[in-house]
Amino acid sequence: MKVQFMLVVLLSIASCYAYQSYCRCQCNSDDNYLLMEITDELKNDILKSNEQLKASDPSLTFTEDFKKDCSFCSKKLCKESVDKDGNTICKKTVINEIVINCFERESLKDQVVIYSFIIITIVLLIWALLSRNM
Hints:
By secondary structure, this protein is an alpha+beta fold.
């Protein structure tokens, strides 16, 4: 019983390391949410655009630490992304009018709290059932 419980706890904690980052693109009155998937093509596009911006203003600095996080959420990404129907999300919108916001869902902290609550509740229910039968 203890081994099974420890296995469930370890599997729950291991699953806590998965999180998803989303980029919210607001174009005119439409809100679209993009799952941040890191691809080599996207990384190269961002590096190229950063180099172009740096050439125009040398005082700008950019991070090159690419992770599955909000570093990819940009107005350019919103302008070029395609929705599930194959339409460009912000095609008719000028880049300056696009509002972006990035957020994480199911972060490590969220999952630890939720899974801990679920595991503790299940253990207490099992303990109550077993103690009632004795």
